[in-house]
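Risk register update: the risk of archive-format incompatibility is retired. Evidence:
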Amino acid sequence: MNTDNITGITVCHNTKDLFQRAYESVRKFHPMMKIIIVDGSDSRDPCYSYVNSLKSDITTVVTCNYNIGHGRGMNLALRLCLTKFALIFDSDIVMLESPVFEMLSMMDDDTYGVGAFDYVDNRGFGKNNHSPEWRAAATKYLHPYFQLINVNIYKQYPPYVHHGSPCIHVMNEIKRRGLSDKILKEFPGASIYGSEYIQHPTDGTRAERRSRGLPEIEGGWERKKKL
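Archived output:
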């Protein structure tokens, strides 16, 4: 099995060390997989130079010259993607072992995506210690830190957006159609905190932005108190 029909997609902004670790960990297991990097780094930031050095026949770099944001960056890359499947991964993950082919084996013709689930309200906010009743009414949310999705099916739903939960509109729409348990699939052992395959520091890029005195998410969307 090969990755000819899969394109990796990731978005970064002024986080060279985090991104280099993520990119090199994925390349260790998938040296020939096509990857699209959407980079919103400042031209004088080391991340900008590093990402541009990666350009090749299999690595496409989209330079935005502004911080496009995670959701809009993913959507841009998905619109450029020419393969059937897209492997979306955060710029701060570490691939310890590759689950990609196992995830691919779970994809049916109508599957939107495979990955880790979170449960959120219709605005995209989770809740600690939620009750079974809350979870039953919540939106099943396929987390974008590491997900394999069908690109054509993605284009049939609302796009990923600039938001703390960038997949919220499509997940709400899938829920509205009664398809959450049919076209969203949970990879065994995966959670929003990572898995035996993927290390996911849930506060990685946000913490890096805070360390520079910046808001966690640039733009009009701000984190609100969880319900």
